[in-house]
Amino acid sequence: MKKALVIGNSSYRIDKEKLKNPINDAKKMESILTYKGFNVTLTSDLNEKDLDGVFNKFVDNVNEGDDVIFFFAGHGIEDRDTNYLLSIDYKENFDLDTSLTVDKIQNRLYQKNNSGFKLIVIDACRNNPVYADSPLPQKTKANNNTLVAFSTSSGNSAKDGNGSNSYYTASLVETIKEYGLSISEVFSITRNKVIEHTKFAQVPWEYGSLQDNDKFTFDNINIPIKLKRIIKSKSQISYSINNFDDTFFVAGNSKYLDVFDINSSVVTSLNTYVDESHCSIEKLASNNELLVFISDAGHIGVFNFKTQKVSTHQYDETFFSIAVNNGNLAIVGGRLNQLKVLDLISNTMSDIDLKSEVLKTICNNKEQLDYLSSEFTIMTSRFSKKDSNIVAFGGSNSVFCVKNLATGKYLYLNETTELFTYTYCIDFSNDGRFAATTHEDGKAILWDANTFELIHLFQVNENVKKNQFFEFTDEKHSNHLHHVRFLPNSMAMAVSTSESEVIFYDITYMTMIARLDLNIEALNIYTFEFNSSGDNMVISLNNKNYLFGN
User: Which class for 409: exposed (0-12), middle (13-18), buried (19 or more C-beta within 10 A)?
Assistant: First the structure.
């Protein structure tokens, strides 16, 4: 298990020794460690008796093999290589023989947890303005797999900071938010940040006995980035993937869907019965009963998971997007100024007039409005995971809208053309808190799914950087983010680029977790999908399907 004791001492009994930041530092550390999966005990303003008691109680609950962190922010002193942590009443009750030291912390944790990872972080001074003499320090035992980190070097003071946190704790927490760092890299980066900020007035210091400093990391979101196998597709290019019960369906410029599951190397084909000579299967969508597909030649098809039968109808339209809810209601869009609302059971269809409901909010000039509606394309649509009446859709002309089909009211309607021109893909998180959209110029946006306020704009390369295979290397090509999906646990999202990449983001702290680069050339990745648990994913690039796992 992961366990942490976090202590912040601010209210020292002597006014001139009071500190403004240690409690804030402790709260900040508690927040990030909790997010990273630690069971955190947070305490503050401890007197001598309580400081010793809280530590002993914490150690009593440590077991062999645990990952353990001890964090202290407050006053400290160093004398003859012994580092003392000062309680708020140390003036009256400090005892050089019995007071808490870093050596005692190491020894106690080592006794209870020889093999487990042990990290001791001290954000306190290491000078000695008070005591000149102390007894000879007890020799520290050989503490296996331990790292001790100080906010400053031996004999020096630590800055409390001008803001609400000390320079050291603020820098350490920001570094812990990052992914893919070993524990040594975390403290190396933190040290450099503090040195830069204080102009060498404060130099953090560490020592330790880690046997394998790459074994422990603060990474808390598992993403499937280990390639398991490559599956050749019947399509020369794939546009859409759908997952149902850990079986992947992949569609592209063929009338056949590739069908495979995560545990088998066998790939089967599902015939959609559309004319493959002049059309592509553009999108797939599913609920608990049906897999629905559309083509750019106006086909709408349904595959029944239970009966294993396919039915296909053709309309005089060009379709590019489809979404289906658990009530078997499908929303179909394409190169038209209307959304089609199709009841898949009764096969009845109605329209949503986008020219009057949406485009009029962007343009009031009749001639311009007529032109916009004639060129308008819906590229994506998606139902909310929490409310099957709520559907989001977007496309050209800066359109991104969210509508409640039950009430007929729009929950959000983008009325500006400044942020983006195209909306390529939309997704909702499983927990109902977030929505995400992807756009041109390397933009992905995280939205609050209740208020539809913009939470964060993720900016990837605005233009394609992989230009070595371009005819003219100085030409600029927009980096289109074609696809977005939340992990099933709603902790992260992934986007695909025009540079053969899929990039993963932590949506709590807006940090990049990892990126998968599938090709040295700049190629569009139009689709990828996770399985239901999120421990596997399929990425389609041209005529290959790449299966990744944890």
Answer: exposed
Contact 126, 86 (CB under 8 A): no
Question: Is there a contact between 138 and 84 (Cβ–Cβ < 8 Å)?
Answer: no
Per-residue pLDDT of 108-158, as tens digits, reads 999 999 999 999 999 998 555 555 455 544 555 447 899 999 998 775 666
Domains in the chain, CATH or no CATH each: 2-209 (3.40.50.1460), 240-462+476-483 (2.130.10.10)
Q: What is the average pLDDT value for the chain, to the nearest integer?
A: 92
pLDDT tens-digit series, residues 37-65: 999 999 999 999 999 999 999 999 999 99
Tell me the C-alpha distance between 83 and 106, whole Å.
12
User: How open is the CA angle 405-410-414, to the nearest 5 degrees?
Assistant: 135
Q: Which residue has the tokens 């409005």?
A: 369
Token pair for 374: 């004639």
Q: Which of 480, 464, 525 is nearest to 500 (CA)?
A: 525
Averaged pLDDT for residues 296-313: 94
Structure-token match 């404060």, residue found: 202
Going by C-alpha positions, the residue among 162, 155, 163, 146 that lies closest to residue 203 is 155
Q: Across-strand partners of 311? A: 302
d(CA 219, CA 514): 11
Instruction: Determine phi and psi for 476, rounding to 5 degrees.
Output: -105, 135
DSSP string, 392-414: EEEESTT-EEEEETTT--EEEE-
Selected residue with higher pLDDT from 335 and 43:
43
